[in-house]
Design goal:
Chains A, B: It comes from Streptomonospora wellingtoniae. Two copies of one chain form a homodimer. Helices cover 65% and strands 0% of the residues of chain A. Chain A is mainly α and 216 residues long. Chain A binds a DNA duplex (30 and 30 nucleotides) through helix 1, helix 2 and helix 3.
Chain lengths: 216, 216
DNA sequence: GGAAGAACGGAACATTCTGTTCCGTTGTTG
DNA sequence: CAACAACGGAACAGAATGTTCCGTTCTTCC
């Protein structure tokens, strides 16, 4: 029995099916990232497959949305865990932010929220990602460099601001997002000279406020 | 002949018409800010007006979009000019950013671009707003506080990042946007301690890159 | 070799959505 | 009271879109 995750040694229809599996999720991610309301046909077109190849795999549009979003959430968690493995505290914190920005994984969750009924497993993963962001923030503070009034909720919104920047060329998008992430990091890093005497204005967002998107 | 801009002393139908004028643009701004693809009926409903009241004023949806966008552009210019009137250079620069963020006027232009054929007058105003942003940036540099690798193109993207933050309560939205604008300002302000030795990564966006949204 | 089946492409279908028009009504003016 | 301005919202036509279905192609197994 051939391993379905190894597409290389498959031939003909099987190989095509394996390729399509990833082509479809990749296309769906790209298309819905660009326009959360995009029609299913746009996803199929971008993937270079017929519509039936899509409906064979997903029960419907909502199911597709859910899978793509959950996939993004899992990537987020994976990146966070890799960042957490870093030795230096400040490195762990900053590399986390750069990783998420590079992976372009944050806006997925944000823009697609509310367009499908989340599963229980997604809820668990979302909670998990929250815990990870908390731990990363704590390490930032432990390093002594992260300004004291920065909270885990700020991570969400800093990332959201970066994710809003979008250009036709994905690589250019990545570079420019890094530029503004670096700018915000400069404002966060007391070792870079950020004066804390003038604290950030207004309280950070509450959990309540960050969760409203998920309501349908 | 009654002054059409003064609604107070008009009666009956005339007064209603005057109220509707502003109710419709306000509603259109709010609705399209929330969803650039929103149907015309949503604008009418939000304005508490029938559809005919809307079509009496605008030739069609595209015309409405254009007017709302142009109105936003004009507000942008007005805010920039007021900021320019500030005495202190650094004050002029920062107050400009806060003004635009508070007026929630930047994302209008950004999100609606490309959904209508811009007029020549809009092009002129867009050029004008560009010049103003340049002058404001120059004053920032003249104050000696703005880090040297910050360009007018950065203004656009910093504002865009802030505009991406949106919550059900407009006042809360404003507060939180200010929080992240302040964070970026802390990264920009050499007087606040921002170390310039580590420059911002990647070149800023070019005019070309910033203009692609307007293509249809 | 051929029958059965897996996977596919894309036309076809049924809705829903949405921009625009149109008509009857209401209030205003001369 | 006649002409008119403005309005509300039903009606209409056409586009958009989620989903199904059928004929085709390639693979596998007897």
């Amino acid at each position: 029995m051939p391993n379905p995750t190894e597409a290389a040694d498959l031939s003909g229809r099987r190989a095509q099916a394996a390729r399509n599996d990833s082509a479809i999720v990749d296309a769906a991610r790209a298309v819905f990232l660009d326009d959360p309301k995009a029609p299913v046909s746009a996803v199929a077109a971008r993937a270079g497959v017929g519509i039936s190849a899509l409906y064979r795999r997903y029960g419907g549009k909502e199911d597709l949305l859910r899978q793509v979003c959950h996939d993004g959430l899992r990537r987020y968690i994976a990146e966070a865990e890799q960042a957490l493995a870093e030795d230096d505290d400040w490195q762990a914190f900053t590399s986390f932010l750069f990783r998420i920005v590079d992976a372009d994984v944050h806006s997925l969750t944000v823009h697609l929220a509310g367009s499908f009924e989340p599963t229980a497993e997604m809820g668990a993963d979302a909670a998990r990602s929250g815990k990870l962001a908390e731990r990363l923030t704590r390490r930032g503070h432990q390093s002594g460099r992260l300004r004291s009034d920065f909270t885990p909720a700020d991570i969400v919104l800093v990332l959201e601001g970066c994710a809003a920047l979008r250009f036709p060329d994905p690589e250019r998008t990545r570079r420019l997002r890094r530029r503004y992430l670096a700018l915000q990091l400069a404002g966060l890093d007391t070792a870079a000279g950020a004066a804390q005497d003038a604290g950030l204005p207004g309280p950070p967002a509450s959990e309540e406020e960050l969760g409203w998107r998920w309501r349908r």
